[in-house]
Design brief:
By secondary structure, the chain is of the alpha+beta class. It is built from five helices and six strands; from the N terminus they run H-H-E-E-E-H-E-H-E-E-H. Strand 1 and strand 2 form a beta hairpin. The termini are far apart.
């Protein structure tokens, strides 16, 4: 397997390695049929594509400014499925992460410094460089991916546009899978109800028909 030394390394000598890794990741993602499985593949390959120290996903879905929910964090030993276990996700109020999410813009921070009472300290303490990538739905950043490194000036701004596009395409792909699963579950539920109704209707008909000379008898619902 080809390994790109650093996706953020924009030197010409690295373009073949980055291209090979990107194609390999997209090929593997295309085999995923479950959104949680797809994210697991992406997260596993994240260190190969984007070598970072920490990464987390925050969401404002169903919340009001400046509240946000931490949907994923690389430091959790027990990952949560945000599509099925949203009740387990911590909700925070304000601070740097809330400011980033509700700004609806990508952002690079060099020399990251946090106030001691900032909720982000729980996730980003000791980090020096930050890159925030919004995931847009309906024109606003419903979700945001935040990646960090423990030294300064490590996210070249010339790579941000590529990352914004790639990350949002991945987000749309997972949302499509979520909607596909929801439609399938609804269809399966409707199909079960229709079969149940058919059984009830069938039970209303007589099990045996009377035998009458010179007369054929049939029933229909």
């Amino acid at each position: 397997m080809t390994v790109a030394p650093d996706y953020f390394d924009t030197e010409p000598r690295n373009w073949r390695a980055r291209l090979a890794v990107s194609a390999d990741v997209m090929r593997e993602l295309s085999r995923s049929a479950d959104p949680q499985e797809m994210y697991a593949v992406f997260a596993r390959r994240l260190a190969q594509l984007f070598p970072v120290t920490r990464h987390l996903t925050i969401s404002r879905r169903g919340l009001r400014s400046p509240e946000y929910r931490v949907a994923r964090f690389s430091g959790w030993k027990d990952p949560v499925n945000p599509w099925k276990e949203s009740h387990r996700l911590p909700v925070h109020h304000g601070g740097l992460l809330g400011e980033l999410l509700y700004a609806d813009q990508p952002r690079v921070i060099d020399g990251l410094a946090l106030d001691g009472d900032d909720p982000a300290c729980e996730y980003l303490a000791g980090q020096r460089s930050l890159l925030a990538i919004p995931h847009f739905e309906g024109g606003v950043a419903q979700n945001m991916v935040v990646v960090t490194r423990d030294d300064v000036d490590l996210f070249p701004r010339e790579r941000v546009a590529d990352l914004l596009l790639l990350s949002n395409l991945f987000s749309r792909a997972t949302q499509t899978l979520v909607l596909s699963h929801a439609v399938k579950e609804a269809f399966d539920g409707l199909d079960y109800e229709l079969r149940s109704i058919a059984e009830i209707q069938k039970s209303l008909l007589p099990a045996e028909l009377p035998r009458l000379p010179h007369l054929d008898v049939a029933v229909h619902y």
